Amino acid sequence: MTESLSTARTVERALLVHQRARGRVVDSDVEELHGLAVSAGAEVVGWIGATRGYPDAGRYVGAGKAAEIAERVKSENVDLVIFNQSISPIQERNLESIVKCRVIDRTRLILDIFALRARTSEGKLQVELAQLKHLSTRLVRGWSHLERQRGGIGLRGPGETQLETDRRLLGIRLRHLQRRLEKVRSQRTVRRQRRARARVPTVAIVGYTNAGKSSLFNQLAGEAVFAADQLFATLDPTMRRLEVPGFGPVILSDTVGFISGLPHSLVEAFMSTLEEVSEADLLLRVSDDNDPDVRERETHVDSVLTEINAGDIPCLFVRNKVDLSGRPFGLVRDAICGERTVRVSAATGDGVSALLRELSLVLTQTSREVTIFLPAMLGRLRAFIFSVCHVLDEASGSNDVLVIRCRADGATIGRIEQHPDFEPRFWAADEIGGSHLGDREGSLNKKNPVDVIKSEEDKGDFEEVSLVAVNSMER
Fold this sequence. Notes:
Elements: E1 13-20, H1 27-39, E2 43-51, H2 63-75, E3 80-83, H3 89-99, E4 102-104, H4 106-117, H5 121-135, H6 139-142, H7 162-197, E5 202-207, H8 213-221, E6 238-244, E7 248-254, H9 264-269, H10 271-278, E8 282-288, H11 294-307, E9 315-320, H12 322-325, E10 330-333, E11 340-343, H13 352-364, E12 367-375, H14 379-388, E13 390-396, E14 401-409, H15 410-417, H16 434-441, H17 449-457, H18 462-474
Parallel strand pairs: 1-2, 1-3, 3-4, 5-7, 5-8, 8-9, 9-11
Antiparallel strand pairs: 6-7, 10-11, 12-14, 13-14
Helix pairs in contact: 1-4, 4-5, 5-7, 7-10, 15-16
């Protein structure tokens, strides 16, 4: 009888290893690694902690700890040992010869999860590029018996070892992927330029992985993108148009989550995706309000944003999952950093209306509604206004004059005034002197809107009264 073949992914039994320079290893040290292993589809059987002043050059851990790992592998039928730190190829190979099973590090585990989550062709290209870069330093493990050409009678002469062949083929594939990703990068640049010409600001949702970014994106945009209580549930970016009450349309972007120890090669491979963050007009910095290590997580997010040149982009801070933390939703001021923060629950929708009001306030700090009385004959200037502003309304007035009502920031108002066909009399009566108005308003990229809010509201008890009013309205 023919036996049926199963194509299901085999569940591997994994043993976690964490080593630190000083102090005792506790459960919280391996909690995140445990979540990564489960997200990759492994069954975690336990963990081993080690304390060592500096890693061993050949095994990363000491000889005694390596023997302890080998004993656990044998007694618990472990298929895979996962280290919470990056280990070198030689350390990986030496450990495998001792423990008699596969050994991977944190970087390899994250790459495996990304390979599982990639859905679009761009995401798959980026993951493959990162995996091949990681593999290029580990080829010797698979072909150690062919790493040298053999000599002797009948074996001399020109030839190419299997290792050299693999390196050559790998290099060809890497260059091919890099060319394709460069094309994807240029296509994203063109799309961003189109959005810039339409004068629609981009708001990117960023934060630590599993902070509820995709759930918040679904709640705001009314979408149903995949969201789950697991690390790196979202890999490919998603963009939707969002109407912000009191401001107008924006492009809302859901992006990949960040994590501590994110490999630099992975950041480089995903640069075309991460550029959507670095080119955004505003960042929604989402964090888990129920996470006891939320401050540490935010520090890791800061470091990644700095690495991708997004550290100076204005931010609106959001604390998600208040339904789990039990804290009241609404607008508050952070007790430590002093930033205005909105507490929400993406699962229940509590605090979302307060978030939209705050988002509108932050965006309108850098733009305002203006009215232009334009002679109908100036078609070139009219086309320019439509290309750089968000036009709210246009009507025909008397004496062949068009009344254009639009929203623009200070930099855009300055560009309009510098147009050769523009005259100051075209502004409405209360908007004469537009250049002065533009200087007063500033632009998103020149001044943090959160700082503007703080400077305008630090007057007596106004701040406390306004925050209480917003929270009461939310209730």
